[in-house]
Design a protein that fits this description.
seven-stranded mixed sheet; 2 domains; alpha/beta; Nucleotidyltransferase, domain 5; single chain; 483 residues; globular; 16 helices
Length: 483
């Protein structure tokens, strides 16, 4: 018996699990709790969250898989383990009987495609978006379609090789024509996960619009190269991110979302809670500044400064800038710790010392993120002083990156979430730099998963949407000091 890769109704001879049917029975607490199930699939951790109608997490399951390799020996996601984990996680929930799943949605990194055939069977590994792209193929692609700068500007996608997921399809099209011919649909990972449950193939704008080189932002349609190559025929119909669909098998009582790109999903709680112009700085390894209220087209200069466009679930462009600040923070903390012979844990306990800021404020602080890495640490009295000066450099670079998307569009609030939102030095210096905006450290439980739940609120939740999901901490600037 062949493997069934789409929804199936019973466990087959090879042990592939069936799609669970909604259990309406009473759980341990009496009447089952109505919930929405959200699969949040990151590069490292794969999580299932159940949110109740008050958007509290009432169940969580996490998994991590060893990577596998593709035919070239490059590391990549273990797609089979991921697929089985989706079914196993749902089976666990239904066995408990405590919860009544009303809807299921998905959010994940979106810069990778799953190519499925007419039976829903993946035809290739889930190629890593960091996989090296053939230079000769890339050069010929840009030469044929207007040049690197022109195409990047039209698609709001910096030239990023395999991270431009459209180029992944182009690679299959050119170098693996036999496989390409068998492709029924090319689905971004969030939509493939949705397909596993719904049996329906869709595309969504949050995945298409995020540095894929697929979408022409000026024409508001797929780029001409997608049409010329015929790759458009492999792209599933586009649906809006707040739409839900019934699964195509009997006995299911829940609805299925089409899935969202993780960065766009994390923005949703803010879009639904705040309607006055704001900027969100989402901090992590990358610090991304989102301005959903900047409607100016992306310029060549902004593109060269690592700006790009994301898409909201409604298909509206969001101008954003990127800074590799979280990574640089880890590197420099490690360097300072090694030099002064202290543990990196010490840096979490450092409070803001204005005397150090004032001592060094007359320095010509560079806005280049890497500038501090060339400074001799012997100039500093201790690790606390060195760390403060490093943060002055990092925030100066952040100011430059965020200012690229601010424009003069009346931004009244700047929200910072993620790791740096809890760094008092970062937050206070940022507030200092933007005295005309209120700067807040924002926190909420699992923002990316929460966004995927909130976007389908009206389809599954009988309660009003809570207005206290985001905890805000206001940071006031010290007017006399600047960096």
């Amino acid at each position: 018996m062949k493997k069934i890769y789409g929804p199936n109704l019973s466990k087959n001879a090879e042990g592939i699990p069936s799609l669970p049917v909604c259990n309406e029975g009473k759980g341990m607490r009496g009447k089952p709790i109505p919930v929405v199930a959200i699969f949040d699939v990151g590069k490292t951790n794969k999580k299932l969250f159940l949110f109740n109608e008050q958007y509290q997490i009432v169940f969580e399951r996490s998994a991590r898989f060893l990577e596998t390799t593709d035919e070239d020996g490059d590391s990549c996601e273990n797609l089979e383990s991921l697929r089985l984990s989706v079914f196993d996680s749902l089976h666990e929930v239904f066995r408990k009987g405590e919860f009544e799943i009303k809807a299921i949605n998905f959010t994940s990194y979106g810069a990778s495609f799953v190519y499925i055939d007419k039976d829903g069977r993946p035809l290739t590994p889930l190629y890593n978006y960091l996989k090296e792209y053939p230079k000769k193929l890339l050069d010929s692609f840009y030469a044929q379609y207007g040049g690197k700068d022109t195409l990047a500007l039209e698609t709001s996608s910096p030239s990023l090789g395999s991270l431009n997921s459209g180029l992944q399809i182009y690679r299959i099209f050119k170098l693996k024509p036999v496989i390409y011919k068998e492709v029924k649909w090319a689905l971004h990972l969030p939509q493939y996960l949705s397909y596993l449950i719904s049996g329906q193939a869709y595309s969504d704008m949050t995945s298409i619009g995020c540095h894929t080189a697929l979408w022409d932002f000026n024409q508001n349609n797929y780029h001409q190269w997608v049409l010329d190559t015929g790759i458009i025929q492999k792209m599933a119909p586009i649906v809006q991110g707040d739409q839900l669909f019934r699964a195509t098998f009997p006995g299911s009582g829940y609805l299925v979302g089409s899935g969202l790109h993780d960065s766009s999903s994390a923005l949703i709680p803010y879009l639904l809670n705040f309607h006055e112009p704001f900027v969100l700085i989402s901090t992590g390894t990358w610090c991304i500044s989102f301005n959903p209220f900047n409607e100016q087209p992306l310029t060549k200069e902004e593109l060269h400064e690592d700006c790009l466009q994301y898409m909201t679930y409604t298909g509206k462009p969001v101008k954003a800038s990127r800074l590799f600040a979280g990574y640089e923070h880890e590197e420099q903390v490690r360097r300072i710790a090694n030099f002064f012979q202290v543990s990196t844990g010490k840096f979490k306990q450092i409070g803001l010392q204005w005397n150090i800021i004032e001592k060094y404020q007359a320095l010509d602080i560079s806005d280049e993120l890497s500038a501090f890495s060339s400074i001799d640490l012997s100039h500093f009295n201790d690790y606390t002083e060195a760390y403060h000066v490093f943060m002055m450099h990092l925030v100066k670079a952040q100011i430059k990156a965020t200012s690229l998307v601010l424009q003069n569009n009346g931004v009244q609030r700047i929200f910072v979430d993620g790791g740096f939102s809890r760094n008092i030095i970062y937050m206070t210096l940022l507030a200092q730099a933007f005295p005309n905006s209120e700067v807040f450290g924002a926190s909420m439980a699992q923002a990316t998963a929460l966004g995927a739940a909130l976007v389908i609120h009206e389809h599954w939740n009988t309660q009003a949407m809570p207005n206290d999901m985001i905890e805000l901490r206001y940071f006031r600037a010290k007017q006399q000091t600047h960096i």
